[in-house]
Amino acid sequence: MDPRYDTLFYDGQCPLCTREIRTLRRLQRGRLLFADVHEQAHNSGTLPNREQLLRRLHLMTWTGEWVSGLPANVRAWSHTRLGFLFRPLLWPVIHPIARAVYERWADRRYERKYACALCAGDGDRLSQS
Fold it and tell me: What integer is the mean pLDDT of 29-41?
């Protein structure tokens, strides 16, 4: 990964996620790379574990800092001309509500998509794939 670019890690098996990534790819002004979590080697020790990456959107800044959840989404959109529309989600009055909504949605999405695989004993496949 080029250290001069932010890198957004996303769930490439989630239809909603891939739709948003397609839009971001089209609208971005450069300096944003995209990495499908399912295509990453997770034994390097430099990435959060696969479950963390799938539960929340993660972005690694060009300086190596990790940003996750709603702030990662806002930072990713800041690479587009529409970034100003997302900044208010981080304002002190709005952020706690927006974060709670995002986290509830993200948890439900993860549970619906991956919890059944974990319960059925496919957890090993999830951690290795």
Answer: 93
3-state secondary structure of 69: coil
Handedness of CA 104, 22, 15, 42 (dihedral sign): negative
Q: What are the pLDDT digits (tens) for 10-28? A: 999 999 999 999 999 999 9
Q: How far apart (Å, rounded) are the C-alpha atoms in residues 115 and 30?
A: 35
Report the sign of the C-alpha dihedral through residues 97, 27, 107, 59, in that order. Answer: negative
What is the DSSP code string of 109-125? Answer: HHIIIIIHHHHTTTHHH
Reported as a pLDDT band with limits 50, 70 and 90, residue 42 is low
What is the model's pLDDT at position 10? Answer: 97
Half-sphere exposure of 33 (CA within 13 A, CB side): 12
Neighbours of 98 (CB within 10 A): 19
CA 54 → CA 2, 62, 92, distances in Å? Answer: 22, 21, 26
How many residues are present in the chain?
129
pTM: 0.84
Strands of 19-73 (E only): list them.
32-36, 58-60, 66-68
